[in-house]
Amino acid sequence: MGSQNENKSGSKPPARQLGALDATMIVMGSMIGSGVFITSAESSRLTGAPGYLLLAWLVSGLMTIAGAACAAEIAAMMPRVGGQYVFLRTAYSPAVGFLFGWAMFLVVQSGTIAAVAVAFAKFLGVFLPAVAADQYLIPPIQAGRYAVSLSTQQLVAVSLVVFLTVVNMGGLSIGKWIQNTFTFTKTAALLGLIVLGLVVGWNIKSAAYTSSWWDSAANGWSSNAAFPGLPVEGGSALVLLFGMAMIGPLFSQSAWNNVTFTGGEVKDPGRTFPIALLVGTLSVVLLYVLANVAYLVTLPFSEIENAPNDRVGTAALEAMLGPAGAKVMAGAILISTFGCVNGLVLAGARVYYAMARDGLFFRPAALLNRKGAPTAALAAQGVWAAILTLPVTAATDKAGVIKFGNLYNELLEYVIPVDVMFYSLMIGAVVAMRIKAPALKRPYRTVAYPLPAIIYIGLAVLLAADFIYLKPSTSGMGFLIVLAGLPVYWVWSRAAAQPLSPATKSDPTAP
User: Fold this and answer.
1) So what's the pLDDT on residue 12?
2) Domain-located, residue 103
3) What's the longest Cα–Cα distance across the chain?
4) What pTM was estimated for this model as a whole?
5) Fewer Cβ neighbours under 10 Å: the N or C end of the chain?
6) Separation of alpha carbons 99 and 85, rounded Å
7) 91-105, pLDDT tens digit by residue?
8) Are 271 and 36 in contact (CB under 8 A)?
């Protein structure tokens, strides 16, 4: 057996190059994408009142901060490449860790990279009209409810994924430089939107003045219009739909766990992880809540609900700046999505690298290049993410016209409850490790433990139950995608050249 300073391929583990600022930028940069500029439209339609819209963002923020507070403890205790994968493998079993990595590779991480890359391409089309979803290089080839195509928009998305994948093969130094630069820039852009809204955007016809803050019915809301076929009405319907309204805000605030994937590359993890996770999530949650306040003081509630293509941020800036606002917002989202894709690419590959070291992913993914980057893991992730930009859904409208949509949106909907489940398992791992390994050194302990764990897991269970009740087919498909990984795990674990070493099993903090 080799030393702990070498992986199974015999190559040295990555060097610790990320300081507190770098790690914080990974947290914030992975969280801030296009969601805050879009998802408030759907949340508004589901709840029907400004107060509930803000409450959805606040409760989602509470979950995010509570989860990050717990994750900081286990990340500081197990500063390993692969992060959450290692936590789940150690606290529960290698199978649970594998299923997390399986879901990440198949849909969650790769699908999010694809989705954000297409969002980048979509907003690039504001400046370059030739970049559009209906400008086909290869027209849709339909097979039932699905099709495969290559539009100029998809080509730009694929090019972005390939470009940032190759860039990150150049090592962590260039990847973190891009991440820091773009995170600072997009945070400034989001702050600019907030300041403009709160200083220039005040409008006596806005939702803040003209809509009932807590009486949805007074604003013309009905449960049947918000969610046709809902079996309950009134307050019960509102409670159920409030849970659905949290999905957009919660997943706009997700991906903060990505920083744990770089655990083996973080300097002084006992100090860095608590700073990065708590400062990063607190900052983003505050920015998101203030952005929604800016929407509410700028736009009538009906314009938030019915913003064209759900682009609430664009509608707000157009109200403040006129037609130029659309291009200003498009530019801000280009910066935001570019930085977000970079953070997701940089961090995600570290999970597959860690899995490969355990013999649970393609063996070449366990190798690092001369720059210390997991080249094969980055390539595998990049290829699959690029492929996920190509399939589209195909549906026929009432007029008999075939409409094409993005498949990855459907795939991500499948795994919403699954993703929440894996976050909950990570938070539960903090509790499990306190029971299983109370003597392990903990450089940071969760403040007010176990309250943050109870808050996160309790709300997550309620949300997952709500989503499963309202959308059983997509939720069921999500769990089937995860469970499909079990036979794959069985085959891969049997074929692994070496099992986990006793040293790794007994010392989860080993490098």
Assistant:
1) 64
2) yes
3) 72
4) 0.90
5) N
6) 9
7) 999 999 999 999 999
8) no
Residue type, 442: R
Alpha carbon distance 327, 123 (integer Å):
9
When divided into structural domains, the chain yields a total of: 1
Residue 315, number of CB atoms within 10 A of its CB: 24
Structure confidence at residue 294 (pLDDT): 96
Q: What is the C-alpha separation between 30 and 405, in angstroms, rounded?
A: 25
* Average pLDDT value over all residues in the chain: 89
Is 6 inside a domain boundary?
no
Pairing verdict, β 391-396 and 136-143: unpaired
Residue 157's Cα: distance from chain center in Å?
17
Asked whether residue 80 carries a pLDDT value surpassing 70, the answer given is yes
Q: Which two tokens mark 53?
A: 């819209």
**Is position 298 within any domain?**
yes
- Can you tell me the distance from the alpha carbon of 165 to that of 157, in angstroms, rounded to the nearest whole number? 12
List own/partner pairs for 270-274 with CB under 8 A and 24 or more apart: 270/76, 270/79, 270/443, 270/444, 271/20, 271/76, 271/443, 271/444, 272/18, 272/19, 272/20, 272/23, 273/23, 273/71, 273/72, 273/75, 273/76, 273/79, 273/444, 274/72, 274/76, 274/444
pLDDT value of residue 413: 73
- Residue 459 above 90 pLDDT? yes
107, 359, 485 from 493: Cα distances, Å? 21, 7, 12
Structural domain of 258: 20-506
How far is the CA of 250 from the CAs of 73, 75, 150, 281, in angstroms? Answer: 22, 21, 31, 12
Tell me whether residue 239 is in a domain.
yes
Q: Where are the beta strands (DSSP E) in 295-428?
A: 391-396, 402-406
pLDDT for res 450: 95
Contact 358, 351 (CB under 8 A): no
**Pairs from 457-465 (Cβ < 8 Å, separation ≥ 24):** 457/424, 457/427, 457/428, 459/59, 459/62, 459/63, 460/63, 460/420, 460/421, 460/423, 460/424, 461/424, 462/243, 463/243, 463/246, 463/247, 463/250, 463/417, 463/420, 464/417, 464/420, 464/421
pLDDT at position 63: 95
Characterize 371-400 residue by residue with b for buried, 16 or more Cβ atoms within 10 angstroms of its Cβ, and e for exposed: ebbbbbbbbbbbebbbebbbbbebeeeeee
CA atoms within a 13 Å half-sphere pointing along the CA-CB vector of 421: 20
Contact 303, 40 (CB under 8 A): no
* CA angle (384 as vertex; 420, 99 as ends), nearest 5: 35
Lowest mean pLDDT among 72-81, 302-311, 385-394, 488-497: 488-497
Per-residue pLDDT, 272: 95
Look at residue 418 in the predicted model and tell me its pLDDT: 86
Q: What is the CATH number of the domain that holds 447?
A: 1.20.1740.10
Sheet bearing 391-396, strands edge to edge: 136-143, 146-151, 391-396, 402-406
